[in-house]
What does this fold into?
Amino acid sequence: MSHAPASDEDVTFATLLDRVRKHVDGALATWLTPRVAAASAVSAEVGAAAEAVCGLALRGGKRMRAALVGAAFVACGEQDWARVERAMIAIELLQVYLLIHDDWMDDDDVRRGGPAVHVLLRERLGSKRLGDAAAVLAGDLSCGYAQDALLESDLPAERVLAAARAFARIQEEVVTGQLAEMSTHASVEVIHALKTASYTVTGPLALGACLAGASEARVAQLARYGRPLGIAFQLRDDLLGTFGDASATGKPVGNDIRQGKRTAIIAEMRGHAASEAVLARVLGRVSASDAEVAEVVRAMETSGAKARVEARVAELLVEARAALEAMGLPEGSPGKRWLAGAVRALGERSA
Amino acid sequence: MSHAPASDEDVTFATLLDRVRKHVDGALATWLTPRVAAASAVSAEVGAAAEAVCGLALRGGKRMRAALVGAAFVACGEQDWARVERAMIAIELLQVYLLIHDDWMDDDDVRRGGPAVHVLLRERLGSKRLGDAAAVLAGDLSCGYAQDALLESDLPAERVLAAARAFARIQEEVVTGQLAEMSTHASVEVIHALKTASYTVTGPLALGACLAGASEARVAQLARYGRPLGIAFQLRDDLLGTFGDASATGKPVGNDIRQGKRTAIIAEMRGHAASEAVLARVLGRVSASDAEVAEVVRAMETSGAKARVEARVAELLVEARAALEAMGLPEGSPGKRWLAGAVRALGERSA
It folds into this structure.
């Protein structure tokens, strides 16, 4: 949303992101192509699932997580981020796995501007039941691919093993977060930390650090930087889900409201009488009209909920920057500049 | 956890299985308990999923896969199978993950003599939709646990890494097999090799061998022994699903027929006119009466399909025994005796 001229930091991280994206897009295609061919040779159904994984993996994606793997790798003393290419592929395929399962669970039909995988496979297999089962399996397949890719990393065994442990932890945390999201009691911020911060920020940072052979202390420092940044990222996501530009985010505005998603903004509206009344009428009603959705959006602003979430984002970004300072990385080093740039890119993004 | 490796010298596979079962039952409970507690602390839903994983993991299970990990470890030159305890936990939790997803996909309500996890979670969360999503997540959680456990193995990093690669391959193969099962064209034996042989026999053998630091040639020899044995195991499963004792197998007889499962017996009935007519009327009809199911069972016998599947099992067991001989393991060594015993235990089992 910011129209301020980009600072040097921004340009640097943006350039890294751009380079990583090109590299990872190519590497993902190269890595997946023989697997899709092998899957298709087994049966059309296996081929359809593998194609769906490949299609979603290559359909856009900012490769922000991959860039964070590279930034952490370099921040922990390594030179060449391309050496963690396999881990970059892995984190992107882990995301594909999570998106597939998540879209099916939330009944979200659109992903990255195209049909969600369960929608694609229902059509391809001519049945809701088969399509749903195939989508869950396609997610599982992507999860297996992700581990495969990570374990191919051409780095010392101890480092790869440490990264694999971090990877298993990411999976457990995300799943825990998704289960916690079903609760009406769990704290929204705890859910965000588990469900998003983990695989979006702290996980990729841990992968890069482990693959660089970093000490546990260093991995912990990176986590203190990554956790607030990851939560801020999800809060920004909640804001963009309602106040963002649908053509840029690839998700229809109003979706979150019609699905009754417990976003941070909704949580902040609780206890405000007028808001509660609107929410009771509209939230979670798939058939809610555009006018009703607009009422909720207005209440988000008048109740101050939106402003409070924005303030919390700002607070979390201050926390992330302080944690980065505390790491004592050499001033002006690429690692430090990239991690500083990531704070703006993730916390202040508009898509 | 104490056991004297020396006393393993003269134990049979049945005794090994018994010792492994006791060991793994205890180890699984010890390993899972703090995780269930941590999950419950996040929210009731997370706790319910973790409890469901733990409950299914501890509800019976023959621990045959765990025993095969130990047998391969010893056959590849190691002494003490308890050193692969974490891999044993891992393969059992991988099975739990697969059973949870599989039961949900097949709409199987009973598992190991109790309610399937999706049935349990639908009730616990008071909704089919939430329960199904939670069951898929509980499976994912168990998958994460499994990796976690394997990566904790206290053995050289290169060995653990090789085992982790084998583990990722198992997951990919099983998922591929499940997807192939949706097809009406894929060969039943290819499906069995992928879907069952992989995580039941060849996968556990590969884990044990990798953790013992075995050569690739040795791992390949074990695969040649394990593949026919694993397929025979699944054929035996198909036979027991219809001709077995439901109280011993824990699955109601007639289930496979009412669900229209493409078992090897059904595949063998194709082309036999009288059988085709019965199948067309009964197979895959959930509401089929016991008398109708009995008609299909009779046709399985009169068409010769049952006998042909039994003959194929015998053939596969001969193949497995020949592959075991070709490995050139010392005559009378525990590793060789256990692998020979496994052929009988898995291929000629009655439950």
